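User: Can you help me understand a structure? I only have the sequence.
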Amino acid sequence: MRLLDRLPWQAKFVALALIWGSSFLFMKVGLTHLHPIQISTLRILLGAATLVALLRVSGGTLPRERRVWGHLMFCSAFLTVLPFTGFVIGEQYVSSALAGIGNATTPIAAVIFGLLLLPSERLTARKLAAVLIGFVGVVIIAEPWNSLGRPDPVGFLIVLLSGACYGLGWTYNRRYLGAADLGGLSQPTALLLCGSALMVPVLFGWWWLTRDSVPAPWSLIPDPVGEPTAYPLWLSLGSVAVLGLLGTGAAYMLQYDVVRAAGAIVSTTVTYLIPVVSVILGVVVLREHLGVAQLAGFVIVLGAAFVINAAPRKAAGE
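Assistant: Let's start by predicting it. Here is the structure, written out as tokens:
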């Protein structure tokens, strides 16, 4: 932990982009043998276990106020349960590269929710234009005019909503939990513990509805008849383990470190790099394909996100 504390926030920022960018690949591989609900549950539980262990080693403490835990429970729904589950469900229908592109809409959603939750936020003409241009980029990616080669509309909508969950979750965190941060691993650990408390009942509810075909909540999903699995079992389970330990536990620790060192606005710019990493890994490792419309729309959405988070220009004489 002491070595990690000595690292500059810029190094943590790059590490976070690589970790979260690769998470879409790990989710895709994990789908070979596990249901999305199982993947998201394992991801949150492993992430929580990682941070609890590190919290004990570092001598940190968890929040004590009930009000803080109440806000953390709501916040965790939009920073863990809903996006983690939504992205994996979406990747059943769209590529991991396209799911990563959907994550690029987070800053756009953050602007919208910021207007609702943050009294100090103002919708400038530049931000309004960027939001509208971002929506144009989303439409181009979806290609509603192309009935044959367009991405699956349901899957793409799910990943868009999952990215929007992050925008709401981090805005809510900034509004209600900014002054309640005890430093260190306190808040990220509490966040994932809340996510675990929310996700476990979801897992058992899913199993109860599918118990005729799934013997237990931890049972592997049966292979499709006559269709070989894409990846071996060890690789599928290993991907989910990495997703939980590194892509959740370590990532949330790094995210909070970057927020504390550089501020919430700078930390959200990691969203620009995450889809770039996911696209490269999806195309190179998983041999996925993105059409011209998806690439063009991706550039537009990324540009809109950059404009939204760019520092406002100072008037002459300031």
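Now, to help you interpret it: The first helix runs from residue 2 to 6. Residues 50 and 221 are 26 Å apart (CA to CA). Let me know which part you'd like to focus on.
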